[in-house]
Structures are given as C-alpha cells and as structure tokens.
Amino acid sequence: MTLYRLSLRSLRFPPAEHADADGLLAVGGDLRTERLLEAYRNGIFPWYSEDTPILWWSPDPRMVFFPGRVRVSRRLARTLRPGRFEVSADTDFAGVIRRCAETPREGQDGTWILPEMAAAYTRLHEEGHAHSVECRENGVLVGGLYGVSIGGCFFAESMFHLARDASKAALAALSALCLRRGHALIDAQMPTAHLASMGGMVMPRREYLDRVRAAVARPDTSDPWAVPPDWRAAACELREGTGPAAFPA
User: Fold this and answer.
1) What are the tens digits of pLDDT across the range 142-151?
2) Residue 212: exposure state from Cβ atoms within 10 A (0-12, 13-18, ≥19)
3) Which residues contact 201 (CB under 8 A, 6 or more apart)?
C-alpha cells in the first residue's frame, strides 16, 4: 500500500479506498477548517500523537449508528427515566473537549487530543460545524461527547464519563437529536465491543463511503442544536437485544 503525503497547498485527499490494512491513508497537511471538512466528507479523519506528524485514517470496516437506534439496556433505562442526568447540547463545547482529553482511558497512555487538535475543533464549533452534548449531574459536567456535523451525517470524535452511564446518556441523547434533525448516519469510527453493545453496527468501508457521500450532500440547517425534551422516552423505547438486525435502506 502507498502512504500519501499531503501538500499544504492543496486540500485534496487520495481516495479513502487506498488506505492500508489498518486504515492509515496519508500523512502531513494541517488542521485548517477547510481541510478537516474535506476529510470528513470523504470518510477520513485525523488521529495522531505528539511524537508523530498528522496522520489521516479511513478504517475498514467502520462502526456506525443509525439515529434513533442507539440501544438502551434495561438498567440504563432505569437510570435515564428519573432524570438523574441533565443533558444539553452546545452549552460547554470547551469543557467537553477538555474532559475528553484529560480523562484517563484504559489501555491508553496520554491523549491524541493535543492542544492544536482541540484548537482546530473549537474553531469548527465556533463556525457551526462541530457540536457537543453535555451530561450533568447536580450541575456538574460528568459526561459528554463532541463531533462534526456535515449535512445529514454526524462524525463523532470522542466521549468521556466521570459518572457511571453519563457517556451512554449523552450518546442516547445524540441519537434522538440526530433523528429529530433528519440525520442519516452517526459515524463512530473504530469498532469496539462497548459501542456494539449500544447498537453500533460494523459496516464495510465501501458501503460506509456511499452512505456518507449521500448524507453530506444534504443541506445543512443553521438552527441551534438542542436536545429534544422527550429524548429519554425515545431512548428507552429501544430495549437490550431489540436493535436493528440489518442496515436500513
């Protein structure tokens, strides 16, 4: 496989299908807004550490969620119904991305959300392209996630939790929010057992790219993001083991 080196003068990416077996496609470039948006439109995302250059990935297969189909277990439903968590959108993007960077993760040493990465996604947020979902308990931020929205696709980047089930609540709320906004797909990047347990589905890259390119071609809406007030009821309708058996058309 060929590893492509990106030019600072051009925003073009090589075809995502040219990524190697691990999903690595290209190296170099920068994190300017236009390049990041071009990457996501083509099923590509940046992921690197402080001792490497910028690396661009498009793994095969890909993990995705369909809006409104995040699976909620009976135990999680019992947590969500009483309203233990207050969930919102776009009220503390900086706090969410900072917590995603700072919260220790099992099996990981350090973080890939470097200062320049956080700054780039904050610019995306300020320009209306990146959004956060916050989960608070007694007024304290205890969970959340952030990602990039283009047309009818939400590209989730990272999530964190400081209280049990807080990130799951944020994901369930995101699902309801994306469904309400007419999104076709939530990209979760790398397959994991945890995401699969919540209804994430493994999709071949070829089909993923077809769906993403169709979704991002939809017009963007400029209205503010807000979690639907009935998101708990919508989330609790999906019980453990009742998720979709096949990809919707």
Assistant:
1) 999 999 999 9
2) buried
3) 63, 64, 65, 66, 244, 247
For residues 213-237, average pLDDT: 87
Domain ranges of the chain: 4-59, 63-236
Please report the pLDDT score of residue 240 as a whole number.
Answer: 46
Q: Which fold has domain 4-59?
A: Alpha-Beta Plaits (3.30.70)
Cα separation of 91 and 218, whole Å? Answer: 26
> In sequence order, what are the residues at sequence separation of 6 or more whose Cβ sits closer than 8 angstroms to the Cβ of residue 243?
69, 71, 199
Residues 6+ apart with CB under 8 A from 240: 71, 72, 73, 74
Report the topology of domain 63-236.
Aminopeptidase (3.40.630)
Collapse the DSSP code of 21 into the 3-class scheme (helix H, G, I; strand E, B; otherwise coil) and give the result.
coil
Q: How confident is the model over 110-130, as a mean pLDDT?
A: 93
Q: Contact at 8 Å (CB) between 38 and 62?
A: no
Lowest mean per-residue pLDDT among 30-34, 79-83, 215-219: 79-83
Q: Give me the percent of the chain exceeding a pLDDT of 90.
A: 76
3-state secondary structure of 40: helix
